[in-house]
Amino acid sequence: MIEGLDYLRELNIASICLRILLSLIIGGILGLERGKNNRPAGFRTYILVCLGSSIVMMTNQYVYQIFGASDPTRMGAQVISGIGFLGAGTIMVTGRQQIKGITTAAGMWTSACCGLAIGTGFYEGAIVGGIIVFLIMEFLEKTDSIIRKRSNIIDVYLEFNGKKLFSTFLTYAREHDFEISNIQINKNKHLKTGELSVVLTLESHKKRTHEEMLSIIGSMEDVTFVEKL
């Protein structure tokens, strides 16, 4: 068994086929979860990232074995840093300053790392790592959601009838045991003249659900719209 693995760690037809196949499987499994959740980078993107990383490491190994003049880790290091540019393209900041795509970007970077492990013949690490990453993305999303729902801090998007009313809102929030922070006043061309949109962090000093917090804030006169981000 060990001798067989040693043979597959060398660069030959059998190991090349195995590495490409593992790249397709692991990249596809990770991308399938993202694609199912309608993320910008999904099934095909993850496969390509994992496969490309694997090919890079095989090329690096080939150059090292044939010419003996290359650092066997140099090209892999470039992939790890370079994949950040691709991952950054999946992170979006919406018009209401809501950040989306961080998990997708992190998963893509990890997929590249799995591809590097496959390409260098570290099959055990790639398989175990790929399975764990899939389990994290597939099953810990609900846990993450539960933790967020139990938090007494939320980011909210608000729309007001006028700028002068914002100071009144701050007083109203303090009277209802809220603490306001990270205030960002936005220019929204879709709002009517005199109306104001604000993104802020809302912390309740009392134990309340997110729905209760939004209901209290939304019940203030002249708050025309409130939404949790």
In terms of topology, how is this protein built?
Layout: H1 2-9, H2 13-36, H3 43-67, H4 74-88, E1 92-93, E2 99-100, H5 102-119, H6 123-150, E3 153-160, H7 165-175, E4 178-186, E5 196-204, H8 210-218, E6 223-228
Antiparallel strand pairs: 1-2, 3-5, 3-6, 4-5
Helix pairs in contact: 2-3, 2-5, 2-6, 3-4, 3-5, 4-5, 5-6
Give me the secondary-structure category: alpha+beta
Task: Bin the strand percentage.
Answer: 15-25%
Which strands sit side by side, in order, in the main sheet? Answer: 4-5-3-6
Task: Count every helix, treating DSSP H or I runs of 4 or more residues as helices.
Answer: 8
Gross morphology is elongated
| Average pLDDT metric | 78
Largest pleated sheet: 4 strands, antiparallel
Number of domains: 2
Write the element-wise H/E pattern from the N-terminal end onward. HHHHEEHHEHEEHE
Q: What ranges have pLDDT less than 50 throughout 5 or more consecutive residues?
A: none
Radius of gyration: 25 Å
> How many DSSP E strands?
6
Task: Please give the share of residues in helix.
Answer: 55-70%
Distance between the termini: 53 Å
